[in-house]
Amino acid sequence: MSFQQGLSGLNATSKSLDVIGNNIANANTYGAKFSRAEFSDMYATALNGAGVNNVGIGVNLAAVSQQFTQGNISTTGNAMDLAINGAGFFQVTDGVSPTQYTRNGQFKVDRDGYIVNNDKLKLMGYPADALGNIQPGLAQPLQLPTSGIAPNKTTKMEMEFNLDSRAAVTAPAASVTPQIDFTDSKTYNNATSVTVYDSKGQDVALTYYYQKSGDNTWNVYVTANGQPVNGTAAAPTPWQTLTFSTDGKTLTSPSPATALNLTLNGPLTKTDPKTGAVTTTIVTPLSTTVSLAGATQYGSTFGVTNLTQDGYAPGQLTSITIDADGVLLARYSNGQSKPAGQLELANFRNPQGLQPLGGNVWASTHASGEAVLGTPSQGNMGVLQSGALEESNIDLTGELVNMITAQRIYQANAQTIKTQDQVMQTLVNMR
């Protein structure tokens, strides 16, 4: 026996306690991965070859390996908190150093609209163009839009409704002027309204009036902000006359009914309902293509099943949501939304070869291999969960048990040194 075995045991166990202590310290660190001290025995090299009677000379700390198993995912309710359920790392950068990697998804938006972590490292991914189209390619720091969304003029409208075939004819004789009074519901059968928008995003209230004029035949009048679209205020005329098949399933006229033109000509204004003063002048002409292909005439009550149009007013950014595929969706005050970018994740053939840098980030090394890039849910990449964080994968109870075990091993190694000292003392005292 020599002092070397005991001393190496003390050194190795001391380092093991350091590893265990670091694990315990980071038990509540989001995205942290526990480390494991790995040991190897040591033998002296014999010049005459290996021998069956060789006695080991101690122990060596072979490696401190990180264990990248999945941690539990806890919900936070904060949309900018992100967790990866599965393989992959977030890519972050300071703009100077090489790209760094992390599993800690505690992000926020800085004053310039960049998504950053607590150390101001910027989250990387693919940007989106002005129309919301993701631009894949080289990942770059993700920056959220700080301006609002521009208005969009209404160009298309789709209407699906049923007109009651049992309804009475309300169209008066041809000699009667006007043919319809929009303030008198007795002169038409049904009405429905929709809001459309001009090129400035100013809203226009369109109202469609349906007036039965005969068997399977209906007149459709349209007003814009209360003003007739066709004819004059004193003598409005129908925008369209609809003729249905006898079974009421389809429109026989106009045909086809998929691209009917509705043009609003000027001057067209909005007025204050209290004072009657003009508040808005609508940009005209405003032309819209209307589809009535889904209209029917059955023996049931009037009802609208679909009424859509593609215009909208300007809007301001109200929130950002992130889906399981890492797409950042910007939501605006006008009810519109569009992609603002997409996260790109990185994975490694050997994650244990990553070099920890502190601050919950790692750097790639020759041992880890080059980063394999992809979006969440793609290939072997994990699924992204917004409003949640990945907890550390450190088993606190297990680490406390490991600490007690390491402490006993340390004491045992100290005892071997003490015993060796006693043996040496005995030899010294021999006469």
UniProtKB/TrEMBL annotation:
Stored SUPFAM superfamilies: Flagellar hook protein flgE (SSF117143)
Compartments it resides in: Bacterial flagellum basal body
Domain Flagellar basal-body/hook protein C-terminal, chain residue ranges per copy: 385-430
Family annotation (InterPro entries): Falgellar_hook_FlgE_sf, Flag_bb_rod_N, Flagellar_basal_body_rod_CS, Flagellar_FlgE/F/G, Flg_bb/hook_C_dom, FlgE/F/G-like, FlgE_D2, LlgE_F_G-like_D1
One Pfam entry name: Flg_bbr_C
Flagellar hook protein FlgE D2 domain segment(s): 162-312
Key words of the record: Bacterial flagellum, Cell projection, Cilium, Flagellum
Primary subcellular site in the record, as a coarse category: other
Protein name: Flagellar hook protein FlgE
Provenance organism: Rubrivivax gelatinosus (strain NBRC 100245 / IL144)
Protein family according to the UniProt entry: Belongs to the flagella basal body rod proteins family.
Gene Ontology biological process terms from the UniProt entry: bacterial-type flagellum-dependent swarming motility
Record domain Flagellar basal body rod protein N-terminal: where: 6-33
